[in-house]
Amino acid sequence: MSVNLEESWLKAIDGEFEKDYMKNLKAFLLEEKQRGATIYPKGTDIFNALAHTPFDKVEVVILGQDPYHGTGQAHGLSFSVQKGMTIPPSLKNIYKELEADIPGFKTPGHGNLTKWADEGVLLLNATLTVRAHEAGSHQGKGWEIFTDKLISTLSEQRKGIVFLLWGRYAQNKSALIDESKHTVLKAAHPSPFSAYNGFFGCKHFSQANAILIKEGKKPIDWQITD
To answer: Is 66 a catalytic residue?
Structure first.
């Protein structure tokens, strides 16, 4: 695990990597590698969300649960896959909602969301690693403590962030967020199993931009080019 965090995040969560749970997590990941397990994403991409979206630049947060566990997919950003990979079903539905919500939005030919991350959209999974082809295999090992700390620290130290919480798992994280300082928008998960139960038509992308504009901030350009 390459811990090369962007400076503003290191300052915000000072000392977190010295805590026992993080030491145990490091030991678990080392054990996985020693027994020959393939872990996604690769080590240098584990903290990609934090690298692309500095602490003081976060404007919107989109919470996911687990990295993709297929070969070549995960690269450290929730819902995002590397170029050349098939666009996953949930992301296809996110693009569908964007087409309905944002005038002129056109679905790109890939699923790499790095552009959003660079614009201030923190694409954070609750668990930052996974064993290849075994969904949920690194849950309950300490990552959730770490990512909960990231969310609560954003809530405490920043103001005016828009949190997009899709599905019950993400919505449970609202307990970490001070809604007197931030906006929380909730909807069903974009998965094909639930998108028709309230994700389609939620208009979270235009709502987020309207809130940012009201706060005197620059809206997110959701369009991704090929």
So the answer is: yes
